[in-house]
Design goal:
The protein is mainly beta. The chain has a domain of 205 residues: Immunoglobulin-like. 5% of the residues lie in helices and 54% in strands. The chain is globular and about 95 Å long. The N terminus is likely disordered.
Length: 805
């Protein structure tokens, strides 16, 4: 090899790497008359636009590799006063092999994808991402480095077409779907991504270096958008719903109508209001046999509280299920009274949220919700002198009129850092408890995104019969780039830290130290496309006693093979006895937990195959009492074609000689030794009529029992001794069944018609039934509830109404 060739090669590599390290710039061209979004790309605007985003670079698996010429990708951007327009030509030398499974919105499936990520403030902090599959299905989300929020749905247009050279995407993204400053000359962060499913490869226009932990900061630049006069962002979404419900005892018909309003205060801030809310078609909650000392944490399924709430989740002070959740008081029956009606939830009257970000990077979020006064009904029976039974009823308030507020101020700077102030407030009318919580949160990164310092200080106040204050603070330092990364952190939580009126916290009154170190490959090897191994150590000490509340060492390995099979292995060792300060249900008492280890191994076979399968066996072994937990989860999935698929997950676990609180007697706290089995089956099915219509099935059967074999009295040192006198039946057998069969039709942008059939039942008793067939028979023979509902939501743009008059 000649020296000249050697030097030339070095120069080429230098310029390629230098190009990767600099942000690419794309110029958007104006269009006077808009562009028809039809994937035909024959508009003269595209012909006159010579600024092209091309030379895509592989993001995964072989980061930094240039895209091949037979898969080249070319993107153009234009704009007018209403929206930006995107044309993408995605070349493929084998267009017949382009994957294009049809799914419902926001579900990726097995399909090729093209997407654009837009940051209107170019601050490296938050993207609005818009995806289109080769089947024409839309996906969108608001993304930060921490998470992608796909519950956010914007109104935008897209069309795709398969061609003889590959496929084509045209997109129209209205300014109403974005957030940006009011500057005359806009400078946006932008990046395009292409996923080629069959090759398990993704490419980006501006190089995203996986050695750097941050992705958003590595976007390119979009310029050229100037002097736009954006239309008024005012949208009305009226809805109407009808429900028919019946069970073995009664039937009921309900009709509801309401209105959602979205108003763009300016190009940066939006007001969302919900009037007369209706959440009747939201996903059901997963009922379980819950024996833990805490409440069951439930997922939020109501759209208003899931869409675009990432700003409100800063600091983790906001648990939206508090709003319209369980009443805070239980009724107190008087002599000869019984409770005849006790609502399990509180009705939401209305809710409003305002969120956005200023040109200087200050994010402001305000959320307010009001729930109505709620009563329980109690009934008494007395006999008069004529032996007649006289019944009287009265109502007792179990939740007053309640006002919830969340305020967030989030200042971003340096493209990757922020400082936030968060306040939550719960004010209940009358003599009910009030609460307030405040947090200062910071997240600071070096300019090169190599190191990260983050932490918080939180303070809570509760005003009740006895008022109290508490606090929590944490500090974390991390190396966030390169093959070797690490995190070290410390945390302190006082005993009276309580955010549970509008937030959620289980464990308090402890301090901890945590360390994590990891190694990963950045480019594929002979056997793996991705590989990462992590080592973690965690120590928690209870503040009052100094006893170890938790201590563990963990090894975690994650890998994806060259054939796109995913594997995950975990081993957790608890080398010392620890103490559970919550299971006894009495402040200051604790239960000793033996040394133990736990492990699982999960395999997920290539999801691109028509038939795929995953399984995860797990085990936990304690060094005392012959205590062991083991289980397995298996999940076969079959894609019959691009329209129809079924996915079954079967999850089984057994706990032998498990120990937990069962009650109280003359000796004090009683601990039961029990065997438990848990079986859960989840079936999901999808049939897509087209990319606007889908039929979806979700079915779940859950069975669990708790069979107490021995009872013990808890001693002051956390150990237990036999309690042969406790003879209450504390066994439990629980069955739950849910089925949702729905039809969804997006008949216009932002407008949906949905038809839902729901069937559910529950069965609980104190006699353990170990036969699965008998349990199935019992739950289906119990009082089943059937609901048939139809709902129509229609999206109305104020500008279209205005232009008609």
């Amino acid at each position: 090899m000649s020296k000249s060739y050697y030097y030339a090669t070095i120069i080429v590599y230098f310029f390629v790497l230098n190009a990767f390290s600099q942000k690419k710039v794309l110029i958007a061209n104006p269009t006077a008359d808009g562009i028809a979004v039809d994937a035909k790309f024959n508009d003269k605007t595209w012909a006159n636009n010579n600024d092209i985003a091309t030379d895509f670079i592989m993001f995964e698996p072989d980061n930094g590799k240039l895209i091949s010429t037979n898969k080249r990708t070319e993107v153009k951007v234009s704009y007018d006063n209403d929206a930006i327009y995107i044309l993408a030509l995605l070349y493929d030398d084998e267009p017949n092999k382009i994957q294009r499974e049809i799914t419902k919105r926001d579900v990726f499936g097995v399909s090729d994808h093209f997407s654009v990520a837009i940051n209107g403030f170019n601050d490296g902090q938050q993207d609005f991402r818009f995806y289109v599959s080769a089947a024409g299905v839309q996906m969108d989300c608001i993304a930060t480095e921490a998470a992608e929020d796909y519950t956010w749905d914007a109104i935008w247009d897209s069309e795709v077409a398969i061609t003889n050279f590959g496929w084509v995407v045209e997109m129209k993204i209205p300014y109403a779907a974005l957030r940006f400053s009011n500057a005359q000359k806009q400078t946006w962060g932008i990046n395009f991504k292409r996923e080629i499913k069959r090759d398990v490869q993704t490419y980006t226009w501006n190089h995203v270096d996986t050695k750097i932990g941050a992705v958003i900061t590595q976007a390119g630049i979009l310029e050229g958008i100037e002097n736009i006069k954006t239309p008024t962002r005012l949208f009305f979404i009226p809805y109407t719903s009808a429900y028919y419900q019946e069970d073995d005892l009664a039937s009921d018909r309900t009709f509801k109508a309401g209105l959602d309003i979205k108003y763009g205060i300016n190009d940066s801030f939006t007001l969302d209001a919900i009037l007369v809310p209706d959440f009747g078609q939201t996903k059901f909650d997963n009922a379980i046999l819950y024996l833990d000392p805490f409440e069951q944490k439930l997922e939020e399924n109501r759209p208003f509280f899931t869409e675009g709430t990432n700003l409100f989740n800063i600091g983790n002070l906001f648990y939206s299920r508090r709003i319209g959740g369980f009443p805070t008081r239980e009724p107190v029956p008087e002599a000869n009274e019984e409770i005849t009606k006790y609502p399990s939830t509180v009705n939401l009257l209305n809710a409003v949220k305002v969120s956005g970000r200023t040109e200087n990077g200050l994010g402001i979020g305000f959320l307010n919700a009001i729930t109505e006064k709620t009563y329980a009904t109690l009934e008494s029976s007395t006999i008069n002198g004529e032996n007649e039974v006289i019944k009287k009823t009265r109502k007792e308030a179990i939740e007053p009129l309640t006002n919830y507020n969340v305020l967030v101020l989030d200042q971003r700077f340096n493209g990757n850092s922020s400082v936030s102030f968060v306040n939550t407030n719960t004010t209940r009318n009358g003599d009910f408890r009030d609460a307030n919580a405040t947090a200062l949160v910071f997240d600071l990164s070096t300019k090169a995104n190599t190191y990260n310092l983050y932490g918080d200080f939180k303070y809570s106040t509760v005003n009740d019969i006895q008022s109290y204050n508490g606090f929590k603070t944490a500090l974390n330092f991390a190396k966030t780039s390169g093959q070797y990364r690490y995190t070290v952190s410390g945390k302190y939580i006082s005993s009276d830290y309580d955010i549970n009126d509008l937030g959620l916290v289980f464990y308090t009154n402890y301090h901890n130290a945590f360390a994590n170190g990891s190694y990963r490959i950045l480019n594929p090897t002979k056997y793996f496309n991705t590989f990462k191994v992590e080592q973690e150590f965690n120590l928690e000490l209870q503040n009052t006693t100094g006893k170890m509340q938790e201590v563990w060492y963990k090894t975690l390995i994650k890998a994806r093979s060259k054939k796109n099979h995913y594997m995950e292995f975990s081993l957790v060792i608890n080398p010392f006895e620890t103490y559970d300060f919550y299971e006894p249900r009495v402040a200051g008492r604790y239960l000793q937990i033996p040394k133990r280890f736990s492990s699982y191994f999960g395999v997920e076979f290539n999801r691109n195959n028509a038939f795929t399968f995953d399984f995860t066996p797990s085990i936990a072994v304690f060094d005392q009492d012959n205590r062991i937990t083991y289980g397995i989860a298996v999940g076969p999935k079959y894609r019959f074609n691009d329209k129809f698929s079924l996915y079954l997950v079967m999850d089984y676990s057994k706990k032998k000689n498990d120990r937990g609180w069962v009650g109280f007697d003359d000796t004090g706290i009683v601990i039961g030794q029990r065997d438990r089995e848990i079986l859960q089956n989840d079936l999901t099915g999808k049939y897509a009529l087209n990319n606007k219509m889908t039929i979806n099935l979700t079915a779940r059967y859950y069975w669990s029992y708790s069979d107490n074999k021995n009872f013990f009295s808890l001693q002051d040192d956390g150990t237990v001794i036999d309690n042969p006198t406790f003879d209450l039946n504390k066994n439990r057998n629980f069955n739950s069944w849910n089925l949702d069969l729905s039809y969804s039709w997006w008949f216009a942008p932002g407008s949906e018609l949905s038809l839902l059939y729901r069937n559910y039942s529950q069965e609980s008793k104190n006699i353990v039934e170990r036969n699965l067939g008998a349990n199935l028979k019992n739950v289906f023979n119990s009082n089943q509830t059937n609901i048939l509902s139809i709902s129509v939501r229609y999206f109305i743009d104020y500008n279209r109404i205005k232009n008609k008059f």
